[in-house]
């Protein structure tokens, strides 16, 4: 097994059949009653609600409006075959949608201040609807159809919560039948798809299933089920080395191959936070010491991928294709989960988390976390009153286990999305994100003061063959190219990752293009003021052009940001195009400066386009609206031509730089491109040398004995060298640094060194390192 559990798989299998587990304590009925009251209070916010507060009043208004809308669709006929007229029970996901509405109605009935609080007519409607659902379809013996999630998670969670909210109003015999239905669809939360395709549940799915069973157990005072489901949570916060779950470097993977911190990851965090809070102080409190891994994940996995309350799109998978789930929406959910979890950790840690979230909320200029918020979310945001907001931190986080990297400096973040045999280019499924195939081809995301860059209809309107940062074969691809559910992965590429040292990074991707023979070597070297992008070995044989996209910026509905190239205004009007030869620098107003670097053979002609693009959410999601949307874009790219052979490029991006600063960078000789070939890519600047060796070789004073990534940093007599194996396949890697007179001061575990007449030979045991860097500190003279 990939992860440790408190119950062995054989125990879980036996439990799935009998569920006659020994009880953990002699719990009293009062203990279950207390937890029912606690869960109901969490759903309604009735312990904290202030109906006079405008934000709480607005939240009450929203739930009342939703209930009023549902009541207009309610079929009350004695021969009804459905509950809501727009939710036919013969079509998925109507069963789940029906229970979600019933939970919302039950919540309003239970919430002080709601217009429906304790309303007899509403209660009668909900009780009748619950009985109809059990009689018509959601009962023991029904065979699932459509998406398994709708039956096992989408329906079970709201049904269980509805029973808790209306516990004293539902006859005991009816509660037993409804619980039997849940037991039929989820006989054991450790598994999905019973009985024919029974598979171990993992990650967010495990948490959702355990939540359903824990809350369902409260309805029948079933301690065995509660304990079994509680112990199943432990599996989700163990570190893994393959497949679904948390990795030591902060990566979170779901569906085996997909970087998913931003959706499944925050669903997991939110669900666990609720359940830890529910069980705290009860006979069933979670005491697993490994839960600290979950707490550590906030700083390692979640804080790095949220910027100014935007959940970065490179960890949101197919959710980018959903019109009702922007990067801000997922950022709000993550912030809510972190605030909820803060209630169960020590005061100092909770204060850091609250300060980070307060900073996000303050800097969110595109949306408002209270807009559309539930009552519990309103209460959590209100709890930030008086908290000092934290700034976004500087630094670099390399998620080697999910082929993602994010570089942060004051006011901006630069995220890089890659793919390898370990991680999919993209995920399509359920009619979502069928055209996302190039997002893993080195797409770069610049998060800056434009807080709505990706939330403002970017995905349905952007040219999906010209995503920023990518090197793309223009070979037309069919929808779902490469397969669904993470099946679209490179067949051979393994050198993806890099090295990090003191907030600097050398990141690289051996790009094997999706469904295309095109290959390229791409590197990003991340400094304080800018990111250097090098490409080499760009070769294609598909009969189509290959392009590298420098920038493709969403200018929103009416943006007129100026493009200046080498001092001249270019493409000022919509529809304008330009080819600029021997270009030295470019500047996009309000976005960044771009400097084109001297490198043998590198492309020096930049193409520019200002255009209005129209698309719809239906184009990228079968459940989306077909309504046309138009946004303006400013695009810069290199055209490497049809079937290029060993083409290359070299440029830097300076986010937020002025025109004047961009010109200065273009004139500066401080930054040097040391190499840009299919064998090695390297740059040097102010005592820093960053290099990606695709094969053994040398650059400057560094001689690599294996494919590796390295950063050398010299400050006076002190030198630090960070090494990594991005392939994650080697047992050892080696490097010789020609530094006469150097002696080793300190070395990480697994590092051995040998002094030579020319300097130091460094050998690193990288078994188990999973692409992480190992550091050696030297002193010369």
UniProtKB/TrEMBL annotation:
<dbReference type="InterPro" id="IPR011013">
    <property type="entry name" value="Gal_mutarotase_sf_dom"/>
</dbReference>
<feature type="signal peptide">
    <location>
        <begin position="1"/>
        <end position="26"/>
    </location>
</feature>
<dbReference type="InterPro" id="IPR038970">
    <property type="entry name" value="Lyase_8"/>
</dbReference>
<dbReference type="GO" id="GO:0016829">
    <property type="term" value="F:lyase activity"/>
</dbReference>
<dbReference type="InterPro" id="IPR011071">
    <property type="entry name" value="Lyase_8-like_C"/>
</dbReference>
<dbReference type="InterPro" id="IPR008929">
    <property type="entry name" value="Chondroitin_lyas"/>
</dbReference>
<dbReference type="InterPro" id="IPR006311">
    <property type="entry name" value="TAT_signal"/>
</dbReference>
<dbReference type="Pfam" id="PF02278">
    <property type="entry name" value="Lyase_8"/>
</dbReference>
<keyword id="KW-0732">Signal</keyword>
<dbReference type="Pfam" id="PF08124">
    <property type="entry name" value="Lyase_8_N"/>
</dbReference>
<dbReference type="Pfam" id="PF02884">
    <property type="entry name" value="Lyase_8_C"/>
</dbReference>
<dbReference type="InterPro" id="IPR004103">
    <property type="entry name" value="Lyase_8_C"/>
</dbReference>
<dbReference type="InterPro" id="IPR003159">
    <property type="entry name" value="Lyase_8_central_dom"/>
</dbReference>
<dbReference type="InterPro" id="IPR014718">
    <property type="entry name" value="GH-type_carb-bd"/>
</dbReference>
<feature type="domain" description="Polysaccharide lyase 8 N-terminal alpha-helical">
    <location>
        <begin position="39"/>
        <end position="358"/>
    </location>
</feature>
<protein>
    <submittedName>
        <fullName>Polysaccharide lyase 8 family protein</fullName>
    </submittedName>
</protein>
<feature type="domain" description="Polysaccharide lyase family 8 C-terminal">
    <location>
        <begin position="672"/>
        <end position="733"/>
    </location>
</feature>
<feature type="domain" description="Polysaccharide lyase family 8 central">
    <location>
        <begin position="396"/>
        <end position="658"/>
    </location>
</feature>
<dbReference type="InterPro" id="IPR012970">
    <property type="entry name" value="Lyase_8_alpha_N"/>
</dbReference>
<keyword id="KW-0456">Lyase</keyword>
<comment type="similarity">
    <text>Belongs to the polysaccharide lyase 8 family.</text>
</comment>
């Amino acid at each position: 097994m990939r992860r440790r559990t408190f119950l062995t798989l054989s125990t879980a299998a036996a439990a799935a059949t009998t569920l006659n587990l020994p009880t953990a304590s002699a719990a009293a009925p009062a203990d279950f009653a207390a937890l029912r009251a606690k869960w109901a209070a969490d759903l309604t916010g009735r312990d904290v609600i202030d109906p006079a507060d405008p934000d709480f009043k607005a939240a009450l208004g929203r739930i009342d409006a939703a209930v009023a809308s549902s009541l207009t669709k309610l079929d009350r006929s004695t021969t009804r075959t459905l509950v809501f007229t727009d939710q036919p029970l013969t079509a998925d996901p109507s069963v789940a949608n029906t229970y979600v509405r019933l939970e919302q109605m039950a919540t309003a009935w239970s919430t002080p201040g709601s217009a429906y609080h304790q309303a007899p007519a509403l209660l009668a409607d909900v009780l009748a609807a619950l009985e109809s659902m059990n009689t018509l379809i959601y009962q023991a013996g029904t065979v699932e159809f459509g998406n398994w999630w709708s039956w096992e998670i989408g329906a079970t969670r709201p049904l269980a919560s509805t029973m808790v909210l209306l516990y004293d109003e539902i006859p005991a015999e009816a509660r037993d039948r409804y619980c039997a239905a849940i037991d039929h669809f989820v006989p054991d939360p450790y598994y999905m798809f019973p009985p024919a395709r029974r598979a171990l549940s993992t990650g967010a799915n495990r948490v959702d299933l355990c939540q359903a069973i824990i809350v369902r157990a409260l309805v029948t005072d079933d301690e065995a089920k509660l304990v079994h489901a509680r112990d199943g949570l432990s599996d989700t916060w163990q570190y893994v080395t393959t497949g679904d779950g948390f990795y030591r470097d902060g990566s979170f993977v779901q569906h085996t191959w997909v970087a998913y911190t931003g959706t499944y990851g925050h669903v997991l965090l939110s669900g666990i936070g609720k359940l830890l809070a529910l069980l705290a102080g009860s006979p069933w409190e979670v005491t697993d010491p490994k839960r600290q891994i979950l707490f550590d994940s906030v700083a390692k996995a979640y804080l790095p991928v949220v910027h100014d309350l935007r959940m970065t799109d490179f960890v949101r998978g197919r959710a980018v294709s959903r019109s009702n789930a922007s990067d801000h929406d997922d950022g709000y959910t993550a912030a809510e989960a972190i605030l909820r979890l803060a209630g169960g950790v020590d005061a100092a840690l909770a204060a850091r988390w609250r300060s980070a979230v307060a900073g996000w909320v303050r800097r969110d200029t595109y949306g408002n976390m209270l807009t559309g918020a539930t009552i519990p979310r309103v209460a959590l945001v209100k709890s930030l009153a008086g908290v000092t907001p934290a700034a976004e931190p500087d630094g670099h986080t390399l998620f080697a286990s999910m082929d993602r990297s994010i570089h942060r400096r004051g006011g901006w973040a630069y995220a890089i999305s890659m793919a390898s045999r370990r991680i999919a280019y993209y995920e399509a499924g359920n009619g979502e994100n069928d055209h996302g195939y190039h997002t893993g081809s080195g797409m770069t995301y610049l998060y800056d003061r434009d807080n709505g860059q990706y939330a403002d209809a970017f995905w349905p309107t952007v040219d999906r063959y010209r995503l920023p940062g990518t090197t793309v074969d223009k070979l037309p691809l069919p929808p779902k190219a490469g397969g669904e559910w993470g099946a679209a992965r490179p067949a051979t590429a393994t050198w993806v990752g890099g090295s990090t040292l003191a907030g600097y990074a050398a990141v690289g991707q051996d790009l094997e293009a999706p469904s295309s023979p095109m290959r390229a070597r791409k590197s990003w070297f991340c400094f304080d003021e800018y990111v250097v992008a090098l490409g080499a070995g760009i070769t294609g044989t598909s009969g189509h052009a290959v392009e590298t996209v420098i920038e493709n910026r969403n200018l929103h509905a009416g943006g007129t940001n100026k493009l200046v190239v080498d001092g001249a205004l270019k493409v000022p009007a919509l529809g304008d195009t330009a080819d600029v030869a021997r270009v030295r620098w470019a500047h996009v107003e309000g976005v960044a400066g771009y400097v084109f670097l001297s490198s043998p053979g590198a492309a020096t002609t930049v193409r520019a386009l200002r255009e209005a693009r129209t698309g719809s959410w239906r184009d990228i999601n079968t459940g989306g609206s077909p309504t046309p949307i138009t946004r303006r874009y400013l695009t810069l790219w290199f055209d490497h031509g049809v079937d290029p052979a060993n083409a290359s490029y070299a440029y830097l991006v300076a986010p937020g730089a002025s025109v004047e600063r961009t010109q200065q960078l273009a004139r500066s000789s401080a930054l040097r491109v040391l190499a840009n070939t299919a064998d090695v890519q390297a740059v040097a600047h102010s005592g820093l040398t960053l290099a990606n060796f695709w094969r053994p070789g040398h650059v400057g004073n560094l001689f690599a004995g294996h494919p590796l990534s390295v950063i050398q940093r010299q400050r006076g007599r002190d030198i630090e060298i960070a090494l990594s194996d991005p392939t994650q396949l080697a047992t050892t890697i080696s490097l010789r640094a020609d530094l006469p007179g150097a002696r080793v001061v300190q070395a990480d575990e697994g590092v051995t060194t040998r002094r030579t007449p020319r300097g130091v030979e460094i050998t690193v045991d990288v078994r188990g390192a999973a692409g992480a860097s190992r550091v050696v500190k030297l002193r010369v003279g």
